[in-house]
Design a protein that fits this description.
The protein has about 70 residues and is mostly helical. The protein is about 75% helix and about 0% strand. It has three helices and no strands. Helix 1 crosses helix 3. The longest helix is centred in the C-terminal third of the chain and has 30 residues.
């Protein structure tokens, strides 16, 4: 997946970068690609979306656990 030309990262590449950055395992090569060819607004919006989905999943798991516990 060499991205030597000036094309911006694809949605899949941006999602991969956002998830890797959230876990703290982003590679230097991908970070350099993101900073040189990516648009900050796209990463911010995708990061907020991923964070929102994460919060909703945690909320649903807690609600399920409380329901199963009879609380």
């Amino acid at each position: 997946m060499a991205n030597s030309d000036k094309k911006p990262p694809s949605l899949w590449q941006m999602l991969h970068s956002v998830l890797a950055a959230a876990l703290g395992v982003q590679s230097n090569k991908n970070r350099e690609r993101d900073f040189s060819h990516g648009k900050p607004l796209h990463f911010i919006m995708l990061g907020l979306l991923v964070t929102g989905v994460f919060v909703l999943v945690i909320f649903a798991v807690v609600r399920l656990a409380l329901y199963l516990a009879g609380i």
